[in-house]
Structure formats: structure tokens, C-alpha cells
Specification:
Length: about 280
């Protein structure tokens, strides 16, 4: 006699029994079976992941070497080839990042260099890679420190200042009691080619107007040759001489040229420019 095990069961007794049945006799034959659980099918993964290391590549060999410091807080963005962002992560204290749940396909990993670092040749900021379901792809990024350039100090600046006044006695000297003229336009120009001739190549540096006392100022002027020009107000004309080199207390006029120079301690000298004007006499 033979037993055929039912699905999901195995025999605990022999499946085949040999017997001899006598006339008029009754025989009882039993078979022991044990139910076997059906194993659950292992699900097939449908996504993959990408991860890697970001470090300071001290020797520039694009290989992580023991002792090279890892970089924390570096942003890595994952994009499709049509530039759609599908994930991002920042590196942890171990310098590693990981982006999971990526559908199989082709992607681009983009690293944002941390401040003070740049990607060397051989380790670009953008890397193409492929995701395979159930697998993790490794994309590493090497960075190097960027030397901070020493800023070039600006030349010590100086001040150009002066006064426009009503030269009542026409002596081209500011005398006590002669009033200043307000709201006169004063223009500072750089003699770019150092020709000492006011020309179209002269560059306007700044423009200002005289105050209620006739005074004006140009601050933070770097050393070099300049022109100062005055625009006469209506009903006024200039009476000071032309083309005088400026100096403290010396009269000067529209179109004056001088060089703003350095003092021995490095600061640019302040130069004073004074223009005298007088009302026009009425026509007879």
C-alpha cells in the first residue's frame, strides 16, 4: 500500500507498507504526514541606490588614501539626463552620502564644492552613472583646497577739495568777506594717458556741487594725475588763471591738472583747488 503526500506535506512514516490480509480479517493502516509551510517568494527589488565618499585629496591622485580628511556637509544632487532632480543628500561626518529608491536607468550626480574647495582634473563635479535594480552604485568626489589669493592693497587714497567764491575785487585771491558760491558743478577727471591735456580719453571719476560756503570735496581719490573742472553758473564767469598746478591756498581754475601723490608715510596727499568767479557785468 502506498500513500501520495498531499501538497504542502511530507511523510513522517513510510509512504509504502507491505501487508498480508487473511480471509475475514480487518487491517488498520495509518500514514503520518507533516504540513510544510510554503516559503514566501523573495520579492524582486525594483529600485537601486547611489552613494560615495567626498574627501580632501591632499596628494591630488584622485584616490582616497588613509589619513586624507573627509568632507562633511557637502551637497550631492542626483538628476536625470534631462536635468530633473530626483534626489539629493549631504555628506555626514564620515564624508559619505547615499540616495536610495532610484528607478533603474541613467543618472547624473552633481557635487557642489564646499567653500574653499574645488574639484581637480580627473574628478569632475558631474558624473554619469547607471542604476541597476537591487544594486548600489558608487560615485566618489575628490576635492582640493583652493589657495586664497592675497588681496592687492589699494593705493592709499587722498582727498581733493576746494572752494568756489565770488572774487569781488578780481584779484584771483580769496579775501576775507568774499562770499562762497553755492551749487556750482565740479567734475573730477582722471588724466588716463597722462598727456596733461584735457581730451576725450579723460575719464570722469566723480561729480559734486559746492555747498552753501562754496566748498566741495572728493574723498578716497587714489594717487595719479587728474583734471578738475568747474561749470560756471549762469551770470558768472571765471576770473582765476588757467592751467595752474594746484596747491594749498593757491588759486586754480577749470581745466587744472595735477598729480595726487603719496606722502612719505604712504597716505595720499590732500590737494586743494580754488576757483574764483565773478558775476558778469550787464550788457550796455
Amino acid at each position: 500500500m502506498e500513500e501520495t503526500d498531499p501538497p504542502g506535506h511530507t511523510s513522517t512514516t513510510p509512504n509504502t507498507v507491505v501487508l498480508f490480509l487473511s480471509a475475514g480479517a480487518n487491517l488498520e493502516i495509518n500514514f503520518g504526514d507533516h504540513g510544510t509551510p510554503t516559503p514566501a517568494p523573495t520579492p524582486t527589488p525594483s529600485t537601486g541606490a547611489v552613494g560615495g565618499l567626498v574627501w580632501n585629496d591632499l596628494n591630488g591622485n584622485i584616490e582616497y588614501d588613509p589619513g586624507e580628511p573627509v568632507l562633511n556637509g557637502v551637497l550631492v544632487t542626483i538628476k536625470t539626463l534631462d536635468n530633473q532632480t530626483v534626489g539629493s543628500a549631504t555628506t555626514g561626518l564620515d564624508g559619505r552620502y547615499r540616495v536610495a529608491d532610484l528607478a533603474p536607468g541613467n543618472y547624473r550626480a552633481e557635487e557642489t564644492d564646499p567653500p574653499g574647495y574645488a574639484s581637480p582634473l580627473g574628478s569632475p563635479n558631474q558624473v554619469l552613472f547607471q542604476i541597476v535594480a537591487g544594486q548600489e552604485t558608487t560615485v566618489n568626489f575628490a576635492d582640493i583646497l583652493v589657495a586664497t589669493p592675497t588681496p592687492t592693497p589699494n593705493p592709499a587714497a587722498g582727498r581733493v577739495y576746494g572752494r568756489v567764491w565770488n572774487d569781488l575785487n578780481r584779484n584771483a585771491v580769496p579775501d576775507p568777506g568774499e562770499p562762497g558760491i553755492e551749487d556750482v558743478t565740479i567734475t573730477l577727471l582722471r588724466d588716463t594717458l597722462e598727456t596733461r591735456v584735457r581730451g576725450p580719453e579723460s575719464v570722469i571719476v566723480a561729480t559734486t556741487r559746492s555747498d552753501a560756503n562754496g566748498e566741495f570735496n572728493f574723498y578716497d581719490v587714489v594717487p595719479g594725475p587728474y583734471f578738475v573742472e568747474e561749470t560756471d553758473r549762469p551770470q558768472h564767469q571765471s576770473v582765476t588763471e588757467h592751467r595752474l598746478r594746484a596747491g594749498r591756498g593757491r588759486p586754480a581754475v577749470s581745466g587744472l591738472l595735477w598729480r595726487l601723490h603719496r606722502r612719505s608715510h604712504g597716505a595720499a596727499a590732500n590737494r586743494q583747488w580754488v576757483a574764483a568767479v565773478q558775476p558778469l557785468e550787464p550788457r550796455r
